Structures are given as structure tokens and as C-alpha cells.
Amino acid sequence: MTQHYSSALLERAVDEFAKLPGIGHKTAVRLVLHLLRQDAAAVEAFAGSVARLRREVKFCRVCHNISDTDTCEICSDPRRERNTICVVEDIRDVMAIENTQQYRGLYHVLGGVISPMDGIGPGDLTIDSLLERVTRDTEVREVILALSPTVEGDTTNFYLYRRLAPTGVRVSVIARGIAQNDELQYADEVTLGRSIVNRTPFKEEN
Amino acid sequence: MTQHYSSALLERAVDEFAKLPGIGHKTAVRLVLHLLRQDAAAVEAFAGSVARLRREVKFCRVCHNISDTDTCEICSDPRRERNTICVVEDIRDVMAIENTQQYRGLYHVLGGVISPMDGIGPGDLTIDSLLERVTRDTEVREVILALSPTVEGDTTNFYLYRRLAPTGVRVSVIARGIAQNDELQYADEVTLGRSIVNRTPFKEEN
């Protein structure tokens, strides 16, 4: 559909918004018109925050998490347990795990998972950096693989395990099973089957 | 939920996106991380288009449509029929009607509808400007009211009709009825009832 715009500036802004994933044309128009109704300072703050983020943001040189400094605040926090590294696919996973407040160790952001279909091989991820970290830092006792339970995640887990095994570090994977409040009858067969095979002793506090 | 961010720049950008209507926190994170993966020029183009729009955009001094110039391209187009003004609520309606390619007259953008519940009275809309236009421009023969078929739209239609009647201009409203491809059984009673009362003679080309 060709769309009529009475303003080239409007058209350009709508086109830019419509490039964002999951934002269709109608939504883009709605968002842009919303911004137009805001005062100038608010719109400058919006545009400025985006431009500045892209320009100034860094990635931690230790764990590759997004950071405002060369070493991220998790890696440089003396209260974190330095003997455990949790390997995740991207920085959203760091945020999700931090929100659980159940983990006090360090992270390593892979930047993806091995996916031959998408042309992503081990060399495209921060795997060498992880190996180097585990080898150099003798404090590290355990690497927790916290990747998505997909074919690509499992492939990557397997590859990482093979690479990490010679270092003597303990390698674990996050537990899989029925999610809290899920209804058993709607769980997929693989998950349900594994949850029975990998059952755990009953504990009263569970 | 307090959210952990390892970067204040990231947090600020996510917060700005999450202010947009219909954009929740998770979507905001997804959009910002998408922008982070784009090259710097693309992100500058995105941010720049938004800032520039807000800074430079104008509203047509005749019809109040969004415009890059003092008088919009519709108002200054000599091929448009100057004897008809179509009154709409906002600029999205202009875009929607232009896309139908069924209308060749001019527009007048009210900037909303009368809504006492939201504290919007006639003085908050461009009604005086419309009256002034109709009074001054003796070419104008008809004003088409193309507002939403809501209580507020009907209230505004009635108010506009009362104000316009003394000028002698013809006032019409867009047709209401069953939408193309709508199933009759799902139409609301008011629409269906009115569509029978306001039936039109059968025409073969319909």
C-alpha cells in the first residue's frame, strides 16, 4: 500500500520506527504522532538517549555484558562470588537471572548460540574468551550453562562441555522441568518425560 | 518489579521507549537491543529523524494538517477542489481518507473531538479557524463532517452543524452502515438498525 504523507519529515520518522522488529506501519504512525504531541525537551531526551547509548555504550571486556565502563559492575563487584561463571546467550538473560536474586556469581555472555542454519559457528561467539577466562582465573570452580533448551542451545552446551572438560572445571546445566504454575496436561512430552526421569527428592520447603 | 541494568545508558534508553504508548518494558528492551546491534549510522538516522521531526515539523496554517511548509501540500495543490472541506479529528484520518483516493477536496484537522469527560471543549479545537475559513472563503460550498461515530463525535458534529448553519454552507456527514465484508450477524444493533432506516437505492455498479 502506498501511503500518503503530507510531511516528508513525518514519513522519514515513521519509516525509521517501522524498521524496528515487531513495529508495523500503523504502530509506527501512532508512536510518531505520540512523540509529536510531547514537548520538545521530551522528544530530544528520547532521541538523545538512543543516540548516546549506541555511541557510548561498552561491552565488559571480561564477561561481554553491556556496560558503561570497561569492566561491568557485576565483574567489578567484590561481593560477587568469583568461583562460578554462568554462561548465557545474551544480556537479556543476565537481566532475567539478576531479577531472580538467586545467583551471586559472575556471568559470561556468549552473544548467541551455535546455529549452522543461521551461519553462526563457535568462532562467532565469545567461547575462546570464556576458555581463556577459565584457564587464567584459577578461582573458577564451576561453569553453569544457562542456554535456551533448544536444539541450538543443546548443541552449544555440548560444544562448551567438550571445550571446558580439559580445564577440570565443573560444568553444570540449569534444571529443566515443569515450570512453576504450569498445568501438567499442557506440558510438552519431552519436558514432562525428562521431569520424571530427572525427579528430585521431596523437600518440605519446596 | 525492579529491574537490574548493568548500564545506565541502557536503562535510560529502555525507559524512554517504555514511555511510548503500547510499548511495555520487555518490548522496550527488545527494541533497544535491536538498535544496539545496528551500525552507528543507522541508529543516528533513527534518532535524528525523530528529533528533526519534532524540531522542524509545521502545522498547515489553513487546515492544521502536519506539513513541512507553512501551507500544506494539499491546501496549496491547485488540482484539489476548493469548494469542499472535509473535517477530521486528526492527521491520521487525513492519511486514511487520502489512501482511499475517493476525495479531491480540502481538509480541516480539528485536533480532537469535544469531550467534557476529558476536559476538551470547543475552544481546544480548531473550530473558530474552520468558521473563519468558511466565512472568508466564498468558494466553500460544502463541509463534510468525517468524525468517528462515537458519542463525542456525534456531539462535535452537532456543535459544528449549529455553528456552520448560519454561514449557509451545506453540511453533510459521512455515511454510516455495515462495513464492506462485515458479517451482518456480527454488526451491532444500532449500526444495523440505521443501515436499514438509511437504505440507499440499489445501483448495479455497487
* Low-pLDDT segments, ≥5 res of chain A: none
Oligomeric status: homodimer
Largest sheet of chain A: 4 strands, parallel
CA(first)-CA(last) distance of chain A: 56 Å
Write down how many β-strands of chain A occur, each being a DSSP E stretch of 2 or more residues. 6
How many helix segments of chain A? Answer: 7
Report the radius of gyration of chain A as a whole number of Å: 22 Å
Q: How would you state the average pLDDT of chain A, rounded?
A: 90
Percent of residues of chain A in helical segments?
A: 40-55%
| Beta-strand proportion of chain A | 5-15%
Shape of chain A: globular
What is the chain-wise order of helices and strands of chain A? HHHEEEHEHEHEH
Q: What structural class do helix, strand and pairing data of chain A support?
A: alpha/beta
Strand order of the largest sheet of chain A: 4-3-5-6
- Biggest interface pair, residues each? A-B, 61 and 61 residues
